[in-house]
Predict the 3D structure of the following.
Amino acid sequence: MVRSNFMGFRLHVVAVLAAAIGSFGFSAPGMAADSGKPIGTVIAVKHSGYATRLQQSVKHTIKVGDILYSGDLLDVKASNVVQVALDADRQNIIHIQGESLVQMTQDGAIYLEMSRGRVFALLDSLSPGTKFKVVTPTAVTTVRGTYFKVQTAGVETMASVYRGEVTMNGRQINGKSLGAAIPILAGQKSTVAHSGTSPGVPKALTAAEFEEINDVV
């Protein structure tokens, strides 16, 4: 998918993307009134969808151009895709694929907390000093600027790197990072099997695995 249109909502919003094709019709005023910090803009949505504010359980359709706020929770259903730009120039893009449940927050670093799913990050130009972390139930992946993917079904977590370098830690059951971070270089992948274990020795991506990034950029 080419870097194009994107989406966004408010603090503690669930964006649930349904499987039918359609347009997106909720306006920003309909989601206003919370205090979350703006964190990104929706630049692409495949198929139709809606957003639910957890404290109200009210569904709103979503559209390209919506603002995503720190604390928003996105539930991307099967066969759907959402792309979020972290900057106005679209130099830093998050590509969230179907069957993903993620929450984006910013407190110094930008955190993408993913309970399940698959996310590609295309980070060309983060602001100086900004860190980007993808946190799953079993691992923490940290980057400064690179192209990479993290996927999990809730237990095993795999990180794959297409450009640049990331570091990866295992996570303890209490949520704290485990041991020293393992570097993963471009063309490599590593896996954390479950909570309380460190990442495995990085292995080379297959040609087919490396080609996955071409479906995103």
In short: The mean pLDDT is 80.
